[in-house]
Specification:
With 149 residues, the chain is mostly helical. It contains 6 helices and 3 strands.
C-alpha cells in the first residue's frame, strides 16, 4: 500500500517499521485468539492470571503497570475475573488506597491448565523465525520498549 505521508526518509522508514510491527502483533494476537490460546478468557484476563500465577499476589496498580494497562481498564478486567471467581481483591492493611489482587484456587487451576497450551501456540507461531531471528527480535523489542525510560 503506498504511503501518502511526504516526510523525510527517516520518518518514512520509522513509520514503515511501526506499521509492520503493529500489524504483526495484531495478526499474531488474532491468531492466538482464534485458536483459543487464551481459553475462554480475553487476552487481558489471561495476562492478569498469568502475571499473578508467576509473580504471586500484586497490588492492582503494580499489576496495571506490569501489563501496561490503564488503571480503569485493569479495574474492569479484574472486576470480570472476580465475577468469574478466578481472583479476589483485598485492601492492604494500613493503606486503604492499595488493593491486592490474588488468584483463587479456581483461578490457579485455570491458568495452570491453560498456560502450557498457550506456550505451545506461541512456540508454533514463532517457529517461522529461526532461533537466531527470535533472539534478534527479542533484543530489538527490548531496546525499543526501553527507549523512553
Amino acid at each position: 500500500m503506498p504511503v501518502h505521508y511526504e516526510g523525510t526518509p527517516e520518518a518514512l522508514q520509522a513509520l514503515d517499521a511501526y506499521v509492520k510491527l503493529s500489524r504483526a502483533l495484531n495478526a499474531l494476537e488474532a491468531r492466538l485468539s482464534e485458536c483459543h490460546a487464551y481459553g475462554d478468557l480475553t487476552a487481558s484476563q489471561f495476562g492478569v492470571l498469568e502475571a499473578l500465577y508467576h509473580l504471586g499476589p500484586l497490588c492492582q496498580g503494580d499489576l496495571s503497570a506490569k501489563l501496561l494497562k490503564s488503571g480503569g481498564n485493569l479495574t474492569f478486567v479484574v472486576d470480570n475475573l472476580v465475577r468469574l471467581g478466578l481472583v479476589e481483591r483485598e485492601r492492604v492493611a494500613g493503606d486503604r488506597r492499595r488493593v491486592l489482587v490474588t488468584l483463587t484456587e479456581a483461578g490457579r487451576e485455570r491458568i495452570a491448565r491453560l498456560f502450557p497450551l498457550h506456550v505451545q501456540h506461541i512456540v508454533a507461531e514463532f517457529s517461522v523465525l529461526s532461533p537466531e531471528e527470535q533472539l534478534t527480535l527479542a533484543g530489538l523489542c527490548r531496546k525499543l520498549g526501553k527507549a523512553g525510560q
